């Protein structure tokens, strides 16, 4: 049966005597191959665990800009990406995405400014909206049959707007889109079906996102806020 995923697997071929960043990240040291879900694949883990580094490398490998944007638009304010993308091998399905877009929260302002300066009308008045409104407006402007890579999209979104994000993502998945998302959000991790990979000091493992520390810790804090705060203060 033909594979309809844009990307079904990614493989990392480490160079000999690889030293320094990003080869010193434990999760990437252990990475051999990851399967991607036809709908959405989540990368989760603590800060510095390598999930955003791998997502950035994936974006570069498919021809996107390290700071974000679509395949038609390239700009750079500072070149900080690693050479990891040069060592990724992608297993692709028979389909090709009609649109590709890399969204990263930390450089979204610069991406929006570039689009506005270039007269790109992804959505009107990017800087005339709040950060969260701009994120959702972008989400609502995305096209069917696209490959979309998102780095911490929840950073600009309230809990209620994260639910709206899930609705929009579900709508796009039903229209043939594939997502890879690096996130800390327990709300986004409620989405099913999916694949979820935890990046940690012992490597990368596939888990049910509802069993992740992100979800269990948030649940614990919300269910026992007084006890948690007492413990932290002590």
Please tell me the total number of domains: 1
Largest beta sheet: strand ordering: 4-6-7-8-3-9-10
Distance between the termini: 59 Å
General form: globular
CATH superfamily: P-loop containing nucleotide triphosphate hydrolases
Folded structure, characterized:
The protein has 234 residues and is an alpha/beta fold. It has a single domain, classed as P-loop containing nucleotide triphosphate hydrolases (Rossmann fold). The chain contains seven helices and ten strands. It has helices at 26-29, 51-61, 108-117, 131-141, 159-174, 213-223, 225-233; strands at residues 7-12, 33-35, 40-45, 69-70, 88-92, 99-104, 146-151, 178-182, 195-200, 203-206. The chain has a seven-stranded mixed beta sheet with strand order 4-6-7-8-3-9-10, sandwiched between helices. The protein has a three-stranded antiparallel beta sheet with strand order 2-1-5, covered by helices on one side. Helix 4 packs parallel to helix 5 (159-174) and helix 6 packs across helix 7 (225-233). The radius of gyration is 18 Å and the shape is globular. The model has no long low-confidence stretch (mean pLDDT 86).
């Amino acid at each position: 049966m033909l594979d309809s995923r844009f990307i079904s697997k990614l493989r990392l071929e480490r160079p000999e005597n690889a030293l320094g960043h990003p080869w010193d990240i434990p999760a990437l040291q252990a990475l051999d191959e990851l399967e991607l879900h036809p709908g959405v694949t989540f990368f989760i883990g603590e800060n510095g665990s390598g999930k955003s580094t791998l997502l950035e490398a994936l974006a570069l490998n498919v021809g996107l800009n390290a700071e974000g944007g679509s395949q038609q638009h390239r700009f750079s304010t500072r070149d900080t990406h690693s050479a990891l993308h040069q060592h990724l091998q992608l297993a692709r399905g028979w389909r090709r995405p009609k649109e590709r877009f890399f969204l990263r929260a930390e450089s979204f302002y610069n991406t929006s400014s570039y689009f506005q300066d270039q007269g790109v009308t992804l959505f009107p008045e990017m800087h005339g909206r709040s950060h969260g409104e701009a994120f959702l407006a972008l989400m609502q402007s995305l096209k069917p049959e696209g490959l979309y890579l998102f780095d911490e999209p929840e950073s600009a979104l309230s809990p209620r707007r994260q639910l709206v994000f899930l609705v929009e993502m579900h709508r796009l998945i039903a229209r043939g889109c594939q997502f890879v998302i690096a996130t800390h959000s327990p709300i986004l991790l409620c989405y099913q079906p999916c694949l979820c990979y935890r990046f940690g000091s012992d490597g990368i493992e596939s888990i049910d996102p509802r069993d992740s520390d992100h979800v269990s810790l948030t649940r614990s804090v919300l269910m026992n806020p007084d006890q948690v705060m007492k413990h932290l203060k002590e």
